[in-house]
Amino acid sequence: MRTPFLLLGAAWLAACQIPASAEEAVRTPPAKIQARESGGTRTAIFAGGCFWGVEAVFSHVDGVTSAVSGYHGGTSADADYKKVSAGLTDHAEAVRITYDPAKVRYDELLRIFFAVVADPTQLNRQGPDTGRHYRSAIVPTTDVQAKVARAYIAQLEQAALWDRPIVTRIEAEKRFYPAETYHQDFAQKNPRHPYILRWDAPKVRALQALFPDDYRASFRRG
């Protein structure tokens, strides 16, 4: 069951449950096959459980110019938080990232994703959040991204960094639907929210610790 919260006097439903503790980060290796992209900004889509945390991490990555929470897959009629969170659609809670490949490559975004954003061994869940809409997925938007993503997952499987198999899947790009306004930039707007404190703030601190060259102290709003 979801817990109602009050925000500025208005009742609304929290997107994510309150976990007991945050999961540990993993020091992932640099990609053997690097992304070669040029010609301006690119977009990428990542699904890794509650989109609050995915957005929070990537909004602190230098070179990311936008991070928008939303729903990937399914139909426009079903791209609604209440339906998605009830598990009634094919959507995944996801984040669409716009980035400058001259500052951060796609393979570096992948490395950050697997290191601090999502546990790739959890099937249809992340931590306390359960359901297929919380699945871990990578959605390439170009052939280059697809090639690099496949190679990096294979590299991680060979490295055996986790005790369980990697279940993160590469999904074909479908339409991305931005989530409701109150979900956008949630971690920045609600830094004292219990879920952010217990679940997502540790991910941002792990980003800073493991990737100091990629970490940006300021939050880039979507």
In short:
This protein is 28% helix and 20% strand. The protein is an alpha+beta fold.
Characterization of this structure:
There is one protein chain. The chain has 222 residues and is of the alpha+beta class. It has a single domain (40-210), classed as Peptide Methionine Sulfoxide Reductase, Chain A. 28% of the residues lie in helices and 20% in strands. It has 6 helices and 10 strands. It has helices at 51-58, 81-85, 106-117, 143-159, 186-189, 194-210, and strands at residues 4-7, 10-13, 42-48, 64-72, 92-99, 125-126, 129-130, 136-139, 169-170, 176-178. The strands form 3 sheets. The chain has a 6-stranded mixed sheet, with helices on one face. Strands 1-2 form a two-stranded antiparallel sheet. Strands 6-7 form a two-stranded antiparallel ribbon. Helix 1 (51-58) packs parallel to helix 6 (194-210).
N- to C-terminal distance: 29 Å
Order of helices and strands: EEEHEHEHEEEHEEHH
Give the beta-strand count. 10
Please indicate the percent range of residues in DSSP E strands (runs of 2 or more): 15-25%
Per CATH, the superfamily is Peptide methionine sulphoxide reductase MsrA
**Relative helix content:** 25-40%
Mean pLDDT: 90
Major sheet details = 6 strands, mixed
The CATH topology, please? Peptide Methionine Sulfoxide Reductase, Chain A
Number of separate helices: 6
The CATH class is identified as Alpha Beta
Oligomer: single chain
Overall 3D form:
globular
Could you list the spans in which at least 5 consecutive residues all have pLDDT below 50? Answer: 1-14
The number of domains: 1
CATH architecture: 2-Layer Sandwich
Derived from helix and strand composition plus strand pairing, the structural class reads alpha+beta
